[in-house]
Design brief:
about 170 residues, 5-stranded antiparallel sheet
């Protein structure tokens, strides 16, 4: 009676193929996650811009910022962008009728855009220059296209993210 069994070489080949397939699957899942996070950020950015435009339509001006960049939708006690900026209660209160929830950027802690989108209403908006109006800063992990961040907006790359300083227009 002959016993049928796998040889050691056959088992090693099967294990190698399974390892290769699982590596390829993990790599493709990782890029899919990045694309999904970026798609969510673009949707959130569009929602914020829609809410800002509704505010502008009702009030004839953009919501004021605290004289500098503000963490959009955050209370005054919360900071964003590595602690460089804080939220502003007045901005949050002014925007509350136009948004049911304030989105976050979902970036990794320690990066510039950590936690919140950044908003400013000013006559000088670096890096755009001396344009009177409102600007929203939002991140992506993949490069931002001109279509996503239209001129006179500015696209920059810091740390592991691309940032659009999106000019929303004059008052």
């Amino acid at each position: 009676m002959t016993r049928r069994a796998f040889t050691l070489v056959e088992l090693l080949v099967v294990i190698s193929i399974i390892g290769l397939l699982s590596t390829v699957a993990m790599v493709s899942m990782s890029s899919s996650r990045v694309k999904a996070r970026d798609a969510k950020r673009v949707q959130d950015k569009d929602q914020i811009i829609s809410a800002l435009n509704l505010y502008y339509s009702d009030n004839g001006t953009w919501p004021s910022s605290n004289g500098t960049w503000d963490c959009f939708g955050a209370p005054t006690t919360e900071s964003c962008w590595g602690g460089s900026y804080t939220g502003w209660d007045t901005l949050k209160t002014n925007m509350a009728p136009y948004m049911s929830a304030f989105p976050t950027t979902n970036t990794v802690s320690g990066n510039n855009a950590y936690n919140r989108y950044l908003y400013a209403y000013s006559s000088t908006v670096p890096p755009i220059g001396a344009l009177l109006g409102a600007v929203l800063v939002w991140p992506k992990e993949n490069p931002i296209t001109i279509g996503e961040c239209p001129a006179p907006s500015v696209i920059t790359k810091l740390d592991n993210y691309w940032y659009c300083y999106q000019y929303l227009g004059p008052p």
